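Forum: Protein Structure Q&A
Topic: Joint prediction for protein chains with partners

I've read a bunch of threads here and the consensus seems to be that you should model interacting components together rather than docking separate models afterwards. I'd like to see that in practice. Below is the full input, 1060 residues plus whatever partners are listed. Could one of the regulars post the assembled result?
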Amino acid sequence: MDQQIQIFDTTLRDGTQGEKVAFSAEDKLRIAQRLDSLGIDYIEGGWPGSNPRDMEFFELAGQASFDHAKIVAFGSTCRAHTPPEKDRNLALLVDAGTPAVAIFGKSWLLHVEKALQISAEENLTIIKDSVRYLKEHDKEVIYDAEHFFDGYKANPDYTLSTLKAAEDAGADVLVLCDTNGGTLPHEVSEIVNEVGKQIDAPLGIHAHNDCELGVANALSAVQNGCVHVQGTINGYGERCGNTNLCSLIPNLQLKQNYHCIPTDNLDQLTAVSHFVSEVANLNPDIRQPYVGRSAFAHKGGIHVSAVMKNEETYEHIRPQQVGNSRRVLVSDLSGKSNINYKAEQLGIELEKYGDKVPEIVQKLKQLENKGYQFEAAEASFELLAKKMTGAWEEFFTLEGFRIIAEKNISGNSRTEATLRIKVNDQVEHCAAEGNGPVHALDKALRKALIKFYPEISEMHLTDYKVRVLNEKDGTGADVRVLIDSAKRSDSWGTVGVSHNIIDASWQALTDSFSYYLAKQAKNIHQKEAI
Amino acid sequence: MDQQIQIFDTTLRDGTQGEKVAFSAEDKLRIAQRLDSLGIDYIEGGWPGSNPRDMEFFELAGQASFDHAKIVAFGSTCRAHTPPEKDRNLALLVDAGTPAVAIFGKSWLLHVEKALQISAEENLTIIKDSVRYLKEHDKEVIYDAEHFFDGYKANPDYTLSTLKAAEDAGADVLVLCDTNGGTLPHEVSEIVNEVGKQIDAPLGIHAHNDCELGVANALSAVQNGCVHVQGTINGYGERCGNTNLCSLIPNLQLKQNYHCIPTDNLDQLTAVSHFVSEVANLNPDIRQPYVGRSAFAHKGGIHVSAVMKNEETYEHIRPQQVGNSRRVLVSDLSGKSNINYKAEQLGIELEKYGDKVPEIVQKLKQLENKGYQFEAAEASFELLAKKMTGAWEEFFTLEGFRIIAEKNISGNSRTEATLRIKVNDQVEHCAAEGNGPVHALDKALRKALIKFYPEISEMHLTDYKVRVLNEKDGTGADVRVLIDSAKRSDSWGTVGVSHNIIDASWQALTDSFSYYLAKQAKNIHQKEAI
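Posted by a regular:
Agreed with the consensus. Here's the joint model:
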């Protein structure tokens, strides 16, 4: 029988302490609902006492319904010399209307004396009073022992007495926090073991990643008896982040006999990770374990040829178990295996042009030397291969374009593009306004093409990235433009490189349209064949 | 007495297996020299048998001199049924001319049978023959036991017999590799312990980060007797990367009694990490432990006020120990402490305008709601605060600009900007060509300003980033532009947000120039006062 571990998500609270992480109240609600579907037990929504946005979230959450998760409000113990019933922070915690609350208290004498500036005894009193007050208001109380490990190393007896104060007052779980993230796994293991001998209440762990050990410390705590783990999606959080639940959950559940979320939901992990980074408007970390775009990406030729023979050879789990998938990267380290695998995936029959394969590899190496990168621009690679194997006809050719962007003395801005292209010997001349040069160009190109290819209206650009190459060359630098495009859930990336950013953008833009049109033409062709 | 641990860097070999990581031969040499200065013991430069770039690196390295580090060439054991003296791969390894070589052999029967397709016995023979051949050529031999942990779990006896084959043939160190990155720290600890009982040769560890445990597994191996650790700068490497040396080294050396690199060099870690990401042309990971820009960044108001009282309260080490520094972030979670700390750092005397502080905080929250982000644009925040406290005079005002970008039928591209600005009631009208709209605008603005402010020639733009906000709004999306600028080693960031990318760029551009001019004016003023 697997041991049950409570998962407590604090993406919406400690996660937002991370640099560049911010959510609106509505964002928070969307994330909470997604975490609920994933099967997370507790969702810490914010600190009602600290800002109006968090108050708004608890209002929204109160009107929403959750199948499994308990929403948690976070706050501190009451102020010294204040009876709990007169403490504004505790009142706001009760008013948040959540079934559970998390309150943090001080474990480390240094903090009691330097930060709170109260006596050791007064600190025990406010812990006891606060927990008791919240229990009297029928809350499930999660007690976060802030700086527990640092406090324990300095003075184990006092630190244990703070835990006992919370336990005596009825706290439901005592969470040992490595607030500064400086503790090592063997220390976590020793200390959790010792604490377990002294305390009867269930124990939890809250770890940070300052030593790159946020996941390892949580694992170590669970292996030594903690039954509650706090963490965040993608490890977002203060400084270097918190325990990353996207790694911790599969480590516990796929590799050991612990049960965290319903097994059937594990394959939602990749989607939830990307969803949260999208809502946070942050680029997903491609190297992220389990859920990252590169987590099952093979670049070395030897690895690719082995994985093609037997997936266990270079993959520690099946990527599908966490909703991820295998990728084979094309780069100048690529052997023939990579090119073959890729071509197969893309439906290019390389056998037909077998003698062209070395030429494609050669061209790829040349372009990568110039700054092209096809790893995130698979559509541009496919076009390249098609053009080189002769399986390609242009959908349109450029006769010329001009973009004018201006700002006048009143501060108004305007950007306009005019464009001439030729389709089947017919010249189209169009103009459009846009939010910027590439947007105006995109709109003008659509206007010109739609008469010939009405399916253009169904695809759109979703992201546009510019990277300055060879920064040390200053103004002589080349730039690389990556464009992501999509038609509903289907998406593709294209790349352009040039001295001139508009020129690089034009390459990526036309690759995107051409790739899409070729794909549509193939689908129509296939349908007609059936 | 501290225990010495050999540090083996494979950034230049396994690091380049990571997605988006690529180095030229010259890049590799620059990195190797930097690692040598840091005090790394072994630098694995590449696989001479796999591509011409690596061959070129070993040629360059042969002509360079290294104070401390040994350069290592990497390759595989010889082919089955081939005498080692006739094996091309071993010949290339010898020819690379390095004092040490690393060769990998198969430990896992699955691989021997499925990937190599040879017998268990033949595999032992090629390991023995290859190591012996390299020892006969006076090489220090590092034997990498590929898939050691997976192999050991499947068949401990066979796996140990591969190690013994390498040991008997004279290998100098036997490196236990967790090639697929699927092993957990408690398994590493058990297995390393067992192996230590059977093998006399020194043991090493090579771990991957597929479970977010690359650093934890290396720590666990060292604590159980390994004396050699392989890893990469920033954890770059295949899939989710390798053991991150930027975290491992301080974990071993600042927190435990191990010695890796000269203590005086530890404060180079942050600079080396950023140097390698610059050469790889990748954005540094701000959340990276120890060396990341956010590693000692405080956002929550409570943390800031505590850190200002006593740094130990929220910092696990002093940031200076690894060459990093503390930052205080300004965001809508900011309390008054953050604004005060920031203002103090920037030399804004908030006391003088004490009643304006709540207004600044209010404005900040409004702008962040619109999509501005000041965390990486401290110069724009300073201008904002100065403008609100009345301590500001404009250096120039815009009368208008127009940008024309065009591409003609022959494929040639051209971008030109014309610009009118007013300085001290004098209107300047200039034109310039550039690589793109913002570059042309930058050049025209410089032309117009230089007559009044010749110091402009000393600063330049170093990076330009565009982020589409609210992607779900499609073409109605706002964009945020971040510009980094520098004058020699001094750098600053500015931000602009608008519906129109040119407009957002103009905001960030003028903020950069204005910030620089204000700073120069203040320096002159201070010099005059002395």
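Chain A touches chain B through 123 residues (CB under 8 Å).
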